[in-house]
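Friendly challenge for the regulars: who can give me the structure tokens for this chain first? No prize, just bragging rights.
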Amino acid sequence: MLKLFRFLKPYWWQIIILLLSTALQVYTTLQLPALMADIINKGIVAGDTNYIWMTGLLMLGLAVVSAVASFVSSYYAARIGTNYARDIRREIFTKIINFNLLDAKDFSTASLLTRTTNDVNQVQSVTIMMLSMMLRAPLFLVISVIMAIQTAPDMSWIIVVGVAAILGSVVMIMSLVIPKFKIFQNLVDKVTLITRENLTGLRVVRAFNNEKVEKRKFGETNEALTKLLIFIDRILELQNPLINIIFNGTTLLCTWIGISLLTKDFAYLGNMTAFAQYATFVMMSFLMMSILFVMLPRANVSAHRINEVLDKMSKITWRSKTNGVPDKTASVEFRNVDFSYPGAAEKVLDNVSFKTVAGETTAFIGSTGSGKSTLINLVPRFYEATGGEVLVNGLPVKEYAKDDLIGRIGFVPQRGVLFSGTVKSNIKFGAPTASDEQVHKAARIAQAESFIEKLPKKYNAHIAQGGTNVSGGQKQRLSIARAICKNPDIYIFDDAFSALDMKTDARLRGALKEVTAEAVVLIVAQRVSTIKDADQIVVLDSGKVVGKGKHLELLRKCKVYQEIVKSQLSDKEYAAEVARAAKEETVRSGRVKHATGAEKKMKDQKAKEEARHARS
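First reply, four minutes later:
Bragging rights claimed.
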């Protein structure tokens, strides 16, 4: 909790107002029992009506001042606590949004949601209570004890008995419930996780008719959470009857002792009444602090979980300013790049090298788990290479400021991601200042214009959260349009054409040439038809580059590529491709032979001329 108090610094002047109003409330409230004692002793007993009226009006004025001060302190406690929680939530979200992929894997999505909502709410509630009580309860306690002893010293031992009883009950309750708070937060995480999994995977659950299994899984966790909450609530509810017994017992004791003292001095009646009120204030102060002490451990667990996120040191650090001057011509180069996940024994990428420049399309293909997606994630520094060097426009990615590097890249993930809003807002997501003409052009190139024009509001049509109201292919095309609208130096397509039919795929790749003539294009694909026209194809197998070249060249020389092509084509189609490769090799060999002969002939001619010149 203490580490989170730094978020209270902007509200120091409001805290001062809160403390002053709280002190004023305590002072005015504690004057009332003494004035009541004076009314009884000096007014009622003495029969002085004028004194009763004057003192009564003074008590009324003090009560009004106390009420106003209480309102001010409560208002500022709520205001400060709410803004405090808002700032923490904003800081957590900012931290999460800046996580790289490895950082995010250290927390589950469900846990991050719970920490941002439920945990912050717990901290907020305790903070508001602390702001309300941190001065009020101690002041009430100390001043009430002093005034109670001054008013009726013979009865002061009653306060000690009452306070001891309250402390005993609080310690007993805390010892039972505090160990359960961490278990409670973990169960809340688990309920959130199961709920989120089932909402995002609803189709799969229904497709496999596993509703009963998921209901049972949720039911078991929900039941465990319910039982734990019932146990905590039962223990906490013991506090009310225990406190009532202690309060009533203290009042009864005050009355009993007070009446016995009245037989000696009737004027003791006012003192007894004031003492009973002061004793109540003392025990109420202890009660408020005990409630706070019960809630603090629960909030402390939440604060610890929040600090785990806020204190998370990113595995990737960015420069505040790009160190160096990138080339004006777009390029991507890998120099002997290695990558392995933290704690993993094997490398995901091993000594990968290639270079591609503006106007070229480089494709990556290989079996599942060969490292294709990991490779392209190194370009925008979603991951950090553990060996070698990744360069963008001739400058290592480690030397870039984040905005500078990301601003040069248009990334289309394997799974199209859309945000709640409109078609237009999703296309403009990476280029907020793009004009309508640029948006329409991007949609046209991405082959999304045809279905957008059929929507009721066209480019202003609503997109639901996660793009649930559009198909997978439409989602991919809008994701591609989003990257095109950004007009980057580097386009990265992570299997971004997988949901498109062959015809749309071909049209889209043809249209892309219009906007990528001065850009680098990196494509991860499973279909050979998508990448066969690429300027360079990099074949990966178990993280290693086993082939590099064009389609027909790899078909002649790379066994892994041959197997991939053969698995996707019929025997007849594969034979035709092999024949094309052989013919291309023959033509290429002829060109090389012809070029070699012509070069030899030119050299001979040049030698003859030099000899003739020497003789002359």
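The chain is about 65% helix and 10% strand. The mean pLDDT is 79. Your move, everyone else.
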